[in-house]
Amino acid sequence: MRAFRVMSALLLGVIVLAGCAHAGAEPSKFPDRVPPAVTAEAPVSQEPAVAASTVPPTSVAPTTAPPTTKPAAPTTTRPATPVGLADGTPCKATVSACVQLSTKKAWLVSGGKVAYGPVPITSGRAGWRTPPGMFAVTFKNINHKSSLFNDAPMPYSVFFNGGIAFHQGSLSQQSHGCIHLSKAAAQAFFAALSKGEPVQVVS
Fold it and tell me: Would you give the end-to-end CA distance of the chain in angstroms?
């Protein structure tokens, strides 16, 4: 009887265990595989991330506009044209050389004033008188020789009226129309006068 009770108790324990197995989770058909553990996902923030600005602030360099006004052009004041007669001469103030036949004198003039002179001269003899008037220098020849009078030397020649010229010559004898000057005066006239400059001869 006692053995019967023991057997009944054992049988009852087996039935209880079997019921527990059906009530719980079904055993895995693949006992060698372990299911992965389930982990809770972290909540995702819905606010957009604000990236820190790494661009340095830019500064605008001040600009200086170039000047719009041009510098004033230098002004040159031209000397006034002289009027009247050159001081101390019977000739116009605008001439560069002046000859007075009656007084046998000559001058160099610059800016209406005497630059050189008066110096003594001789002019044309009878039949070869030097004509008065306004003329201009045509050419110069430092060692000119006359083509009309046997190659007579005419040093420092400054021609202003055809074949008539200032040149070095005798101050005691009259010429064939040229204006004779001393050597020093002839050199001064040759150096001072240029082609185109006005020459006046008065009586």
Answer: 194
